[in-house]
Design brief:
mainly alpha; 11 helices; globular
Length: 179
């Protein structure tokens, strides 16, 4: 039993090592002022064209009210990166990073805007919530799902090489449906 070698050759070691590499790369890219600014403005690029300025403003006001918090809590809307975060210091650091990059706010805003849109079109609240999760969080906020990734990006090597390409692909899909 060689301690270091055992860790390298155990099953799925490539997945673990490249997953850590992607985590470090994401942290380095996400810890910049440019990224924080772009992510802060992201709802203006992806959500505003879908719902329009009136509904966008209503959703922003609702997001910061107790009624909005009640709706978000009722339907369990929380930003989930899709990655496991440890309960210790690393988990707290990840939550802090998500807060300063406005990702929580963007996810909530997208849900509320499309929830209101669903209610305005006559959907029942439960149906409006399903619509908001699909159209708001998956469509405009690009929530990560394994089934939504192109096939060539599903193995560990290509997932590392093309880590940020999925955002370009998702924007192209979004703009194609808006045309």
């Amino acid at each position: 039993r060689i301690p270091i070698l055992r860790r390298i050759v155990e099953p799925r070691s490539l997945d673990r090592w490249l997953g850590r590499t992607r985590g470090v790369a994401a942290t380095l890219f996400l810890a910049t002022g440019r990224y924080i600014t772009v992510n802060f403005l992201q709802p203006l690029m992806g959500l505003l064209p879908v719902v329009g300025p009136r509904l966008f403003a209503r959703a922003k006001l609702l997001q910061h009210s107790s009624a909005g918090r009640t709706i978000l809590d009722r339907y369990g809307v929380r930003f989930d990166t899709g990655a496991f975060t440890s309960p210790g210091f690393k988990g707290k650091l990840a939550k802090f990073r998500d807060r300063i990059t406005f990702e929580n706010s963007n996810q909530e805003m997208a849900f509320l805007a499309l929830y209101l849109h669903g209610l305005d079109t006559g959907l029942r609240p439960e149906d409006a919530a399903r619509y908001a999760k699909r159209r708001g969080q998956l469509f405009t906020q690009f929530r990560s799902m394994i089934t939504d990734r192109p096939t060539f990006m599903r193995n560990p090597i290509s997932a590392t090489m093309f880590q940020f390409l999925r955002f370009t692909i998702k924007y192209l899909e979004l703009y194609q449906t808006m045309a």
